[in-house]
Amino acid sequence: MTDLATFKPKRILVCQLRQIGDVLLTTPSIRLLQERYPDAAIDIFTEKKCTPVLENNPHVRKIWALNKKELPNFLAELKFYARIARENYDLVVDFQQLPRCRFVTLMSRAQVRLSYPPPWYNRLLYTHSAKPVPAYSAGYRASILAPLGITWQNQAPEIFLTAEETAWAREYLAGFGLAPGQYITLDPTHRRSTRLWPARHYGAMIGQVHAARPDLRFFILYGPGEADMAREVLAHCPAPEACVFPDTVIGLRQMAAVQSLARLHIGNCSGPRHFAVAVNTPTLTILGATSGGWRFPSYQHQDIFEDLPCRPCNQNTCARNDHACLENLPAQRVADRVLEILSAQSTA
C-alpha cells in the first residue's frame, strides 16, 4: 500500500456528481487538497447542471461534466470514462460512491483511490478509506481526507464571482429600485414537503418584518418550475410592495451575485442557503425535518425550528401526516428573529 506520508500526487480527480448544493459543499475539500498538494492539478467529475458552482475556481483545472443526454447508451458512457482515465490520475477522491463514480474510479487505476468505508462488494475499488466525522456538512466531507494529513478547519464553501457578474447584479437590482444592503433574499421553495415552511407563514412574516423595517424589501428566489410555489407567498403577503418577484429564473451564478449584495438570506434548508454562505451573506434557515448539521458554524448563520420529539427525522415524508414542525412554527417568531439579526447588524 502507498505510504501517504510521502505521497505527492501530480494529478487529482475529485468525484462529486450531485446535487448542486453538495458540489458547493465540496469546495472546501478542493481548496484543502490544493493547499496540501500545491503542485497538483485538480479536476472534478460532476454533472453538467453543477458546473456553474465550480466555474472560475482557481483550485480547479478541469471539469469533467457528465451530460446524460450526450451519453445515450452504456458504451458511450464507457468511452467517456475512458477519456477521463487517460489523464493518468495519481489520486482519486470519491465522495459519493455512485455507480458512475465507481466506474471512473475503477478505470482510473490511480495509485491512491480514497473514499469513505465502502460496502464489502466495493472494497477492491478503493485503496484507502476514512470514516466521516460528524460535523457541518462541508467538514463531514473533508474528514474523508484525513489519511492524506488534511484536517478541515472551518473553511466555508466558496464560489468565485467575477467583477462582471457583480456588476451585472448591481445593474439588475437597480432595475427593481434596489441598492446593495437594501434587501433580503428569500428562498420559499422546496420539492420536499418536510422542508417547506408554508407560503402563508412566509407571507405573514414578510408583512411583520416590513411593518418594522419598511426600508428593506424581499427579493424572492425560485428555480425552474417553482414560480407558482414562490408566487403563493405573494398571495399571502399583506404587504406585496415589500416584495420583488423577478419575471424569469436567474442562473446559479447570477443568484449568488444577487445574494452577495443582500443584507440577509432567509429560506428553507436547500441549496441557496449554501450559496449565501459562499458569498459571505448572513443566513437564517427555517428547519423542518433536517438537522443543524447543514449550518455553517458561525454567529452569522442561524437556524430556527419548532422543537418536537420527532425532529429532526431527516425524512422526505411526515410520519405524523401533519408537518407539525413546520406548520406550528409561527410567522411572528421568525419575524422576531429576523429583526433581532438586523438589529445586531446595525450595532456591530
Labels describing this entry:
single chain, alpha/beta, six-stranded parallel beta sheet, 12 strands, about 35% helix, about 15% strand, globular
Q: Can you offer a commentary on this structure?
A:
There is one protein chain. The protein has 348 residues and is α/β, with parallel strands linked by helices. The chain has twelve helices and twelve strands. The chain has helices at residues 20-24, 27-36, 74-85, 99-108, 137-142, 163-174, 199-212, 227-235, 252-260, 271-278, 324-327, 331-347, and strands at 11-15, 41-47, 62-66, 91-94, 112-115, 128-129, 183-187, 217-220, 243-244, 264-268, 283-286, 301-304. A six-stranded parallel beta sheet has the order 3-2-1-4-5-6, sandwiched between helices. It has a six-stranded parallel beta sheet with strand order 9-8-7-10-11-12, sandwiched between helices. β7, α7 (199-212) and β8 form a beta-alpha-beta unit. The longest helix has 17 residues, at 331-347. The mean pLDDT is 96.
